[in-house]
Amino acid sequence: MAITHDGPPAGTPVKASGSIWSNEKTRGWIAQGAIGGLAALLVGVMVWNAQDNLASQRIASGFGFLSQTAGFGINQTLVEYSETSTYARALLVGLLNTLAVAVVGIVFATIFGFLVGIGRLSKNWMVRQVCTAYVEVTRNLPLLFHVLFWYLAVLAAMPPARQSYSIFGEIYINNRGVYIPKLIFGEGSGVGLVALIVAIVGVAILKKWATARQMRTGQPFPVLWTSLALLIGLPFLALAAAGFPVTVEEPALKGFNFAGGARLLPEFAALTIALSIYTGGFIAEIVRAGIKAVSRGQSEAAASLGLKPGLATRLVIIPQALRVMVPPLTSQYLNLTKNSSLAAFIGYPELVQVFAGTTLNQTGQAIEIIAITMGCYLIISLVTSAFMNWYNRRVALVER
Amino acid sequence: MKQFLTALALGASAVFASGAAQAATLDQVKQKGFVQCGVSTGLPGFSNPDEKGEWTGLDVDLCRAVAAAIFDDPAKVRFTPLTAKDRFTALQSGEIDVLSRNSTWTSSRDATQGLNFTATNYYDGQGFLVRKELGVKSAMELNGASVCTQSGTTTELNVADFFRTNNLQYEVVAFQGQEETLKAYESGRCEVFTSDQSQLYALRLKLANKDDHIVLPELISKEPLATAVRQGDDQWFDVVKWVHYAMLNAEEAGVTSKNVQEMLNSPNPDIRRMLGVEGNFGEQLGLTKDWVARIVSKVGNYGEAFDRNVGAGSPLQIERGKNALWTKGGLQYGPPIR
Amino acid sequence: MTDATFIPADRPFVRAAMLAPEPPPAAVAGFSGWARANLFSGPFNTLLTLVCAAGAAYVAWVLVDFMALRAVWTGANREACVAPGTGACWPFITARFGQLLYGFYPADQHWRPAAVFFVAVALIAPLLIPSAPHKKLNALLFFVAFPIFAFVMLRGGLFGLRPVETRAWGGLLVTLVVATTGIVASLPLGVLLALGRRSKLPLIRFLSIAFIEFWRGVPLITVLFFATYMLPLFLPSGWTIDGLLRALVGVALFSAAYMAEVVRGGLQAIPKGQYEGAQALGLRYWPMMLLIVLPQALKLVIPGIVNTFIGLFKDTTLVAIVSIFDFLGIIRAGFADPNWATPVTVYTGFAFAGVVYFIFCYGMSRYSRFVEERLDTGHKR
């Protein structure tokens, strides 16, 4: 039908020149204007509704609550905190607890992931099967299942304080957590810290010198062992010279619980174990894919150059595999950090539990509190991705 | 994309909205034919579903009494189980008409949460539940203890205040839900479980060996558990408030579900006014003349409800104590109906 | 062969036919040879093999012993399972089986979710089998007609069906409702976002990127908090949304962001020639996308969609934070039941939940791998 017409068929957009619809740019601007306008309208309606609701329900608003006294206790605080501290302080405590779980979890997840991922490529059939089973089981169960399992099924089966498992009479494990002796640095232990800094600087210089020497003469230098000796020996010597101003505080049963020493909360332990095992399964798959992505020719070339298998893996395979692995690893690290919010289910006092849980209930200021909580996670995400992008650029192949 | 969100929300609300509004809750309730009542997710003695899904408890009976007063039928109630966290939101948003869920009456909740507390139907206080084998007799012996509590409640603040003012060391372990908290206590994570004392008696029934645990005598706070309604509707506020007072007045006058029919012929002017034989006090509230007779015959007076749900006639075996009538040394005092 | 048969007369000892190959030495042949090469090649490897085998055997034994050998199969209450040394307390599961499937859905109405479930299986199965016919009709039924059907059936209030409040829903029903709604709602939203992110219009691109990165940057728990506690404040006063629906909105927004990234991957894999070809035919943006690009791109990302679904299925467990009882949540609620308070209740619950989740997720991941391999053959370059 349309063929018989000269002009465009009725009902379709007019294509005559001069019409605004014929110009793609104009169309684009109109579309953008419409969508932008709708978005703005939506936000406006939401803000207006929120103001209306807050006013009619007489819910307080604004961020003034942050400077009010929190009044509740928190059982793991990395910075000074008491019941008389402010909500802002409680936020900081929660945030630091989130970061603590995330950092420890990332370290262990990476270790598990690398071991299992390499194990999945092992020539040993048994190791391969066990590693495959690990990956399939951990990845196909919900993370909350892991967390609750470790908290309710494993840690709850630990004995009460009076019947703690004891390791050499120094470390105690019971249903209140893990207690280890704590080193207390007395006056004069600053020398040890200074010595440690000196050692770190020394290691950096040593590494530079060793590389230069190897370039020049071909002689390798045992950097690892020398550095370890420096890092441990120098502070030790310094402290010895100062007459060991360090005392050990051992945990001891006092009343209902152990007192003294350093303590790992069972909630922290359960969350960290669950997060590292779960994320470890995902990292293992990334590691496996990364190593498989390095072409066989690379390891063969390394072998024909006379590199031992260990050296070949360390100097040839891993650096190339890392390149493939970094972007997906980043997202796993971010997932782990976000997943630490599952602490809310087991009562570990991190950001969501302390702030979006307790503080939200005490103040009732849902909008501000959830916005701050989401903001914290967004900032963590952005900073981590920025760092990993920087690292990615460093290891990325420099194309000609 | 946000449009989609609103569209979704708008479309869905059209389906789901249960028609809340700022005023005339009583008319709306009459129109829809039932009272929507917010209760706990399960607290024996106060609001708890039995095996058949029927709700029972002291808080539940208040809602049933409101329904009896309006419809002459205590079954015209729908119950919405709510956690500590979403109870006030549910009331603010109009999802429920009455919140009868062991909620403590505090000034800040009254002032900032968009609700009004009507009357205290149970005077409570925070207490401690411990294992017998610890040999603890008083809360002052709890130095160094781990305390399990529900996060985001006044309980969590009270326990911090108590230990701090008495210079006792403690560790607080806070969980989102009451059940998880109890479970953690049972598994040995804490020596002490703290909550309102009435709840301790109720939750003790949920423990595997309830006789291994005792409730310590101290009360460390005032917890007047009150019913709440949305702010801005004085008529509805009055109805819910006076339903409770009617139950108190009935007990005080000795009117029970058994003898309410005979009492209609009582010569006592107080009873005659209360039961609607004289005057039109019920109509003034927007109800009917015989509103108290309806409540008492269908639900019973306050004393009957207390006994049946939490007192001597229940597994909880809680003493009347502060919840006795003012004439018997307690705090329950119903203003006169006249 | 002809070369081999040519034998010079002066070389009488040259063999005229090939010798049959000798069997490999016993050391490399058969099982023992395989074991020597793969399990015991050197002391370190032998040690690894033994440690792994011992560990695997121990875990397998613990599981079988607990879940079958020492398990209790019948009983009415905790008395059946309190004896020391008992394994899994299966009556704890069987006694509340209805609850695990449907939550507090009224018992006389259980046929309704069951019917929805069977219709869902009947629609999904042919959709997932690549050779089944009528894909378009099937997809239309599943993505458009089925949600309406499921909604009416489950919620009731129409056609004489008794209304059932969503608060009564629970168990596996809620897990599947949340996961399915998440996917069905997030797919179109995700496609739009992915197109927006690749759009040439700066404002649209910016809005899409902001939306995607925002939801991907925050944990699902905070999204659920947002949907439950904040969303009601953004609606006109007096409006209420059902608690489950609030969670669904949160889950849909959250998974849409992830879905957008999956779809974007598919869009990027379509060669530029396809776009140029479509444009050369005079197709405008939407016809080009709908007729040429998206059908190819979506087919490519089926494994990604299934993986997102697995993630979502696992993540539904988090709705328990806003007091919706999903499958894991309802099992957890059972732990607090004094009638079943035994030392093994918690382990029984975890064993059962673990098996169910594993079967669902493992099944889906196998399927996604099967599709991946199938697609792979067609697109090898």
Account of the 3D structure:
- The complex is a heterotrimer of chains A (400), B (338) and C (381).
- With 400 residues, chain A is of the alpha+beta class.
- Chain A has helices spanning 24-56, 87-119, 125-139, 143-154, 190-217, 223-241, 266-293, 296-304, 309-339, 351-363, 366-395; strands at 165-167, 171-174, 177-180, 182-185, 246-249, 252-254, 257-259, 262-264.
- A 4-stranded antiparallel β-sheet of chain A has the order 1-2-3-8. A two-stranded antiparallel ribbon of chain A has the order 4-5. Chain A has a two-stranded antiparallel ribbon with strand order 6-7.
- In chain A, a hairpin with a 2-residue loop joins strand 6 and strand 7.
- The two termini of chain A are 57 Å apart.
- The relative contact order of chain A is 0.12.
- Residues 1-16 of chain A have low confidence and may be disordered.
- Chain B folds into 2 domains: 19-124 and 224-328, 3-Layer(aba) Sandwich (D-Maltodextrin-Binding Protein, domain 2); 126-221, Periplasmic binding protein-like II (D-Maltodextrin-Binding Protein, domain 2).
- In chain B, helix 3 (58-71) packs across helix 9 (234-253).
- Chain B is globular, with a radius of gyration of 21 Å.
- The N and C termini of chain B lie far apart (59 Å).
- Chain C has 381 residues and is mostly helical.
- In chain C, helix 14 (302-315) runs antiparallel to helix 16 (345-378) and helix 15 (327-335) runs antiparallel to helix 16 (345-378).
- The radius of gyration of chain C is 29 Å and the shape is flat.
- The mean pLDDT of chain C is 82.
- Chains in contact: A-B, A-C, B-C.
Note the gap between the termini of chain C. 38 Å
CATH architecture verdict of the largest domain in chain B: 3-Layer(aba) Sandwich
Strand order of the largest sheet of chain B: 4-1-5-12-6
- Which pair of chains forms the biggest interface, and how many residues does each contribute? A-C, 56 and 56 residues
Radius of gyration of chain C: 29 Å
First-last Cα distance of chain B? 59 Å
Let me know the CATH homologous superfamily of the largest domain in chain B: Periplasmic binding protein-like II
Largest sheet descriptor of chain B:
5 strands, mixed
The CATH topology of the largest domain in chain C comes to MetI-like fold
> Total strand count of chain B, please?
12
Order of helices and strands of chain C: HHHHHHHHHHHHHHHH
Give start-end ranges of low-pLDDT stretches of chain C. Answer: none
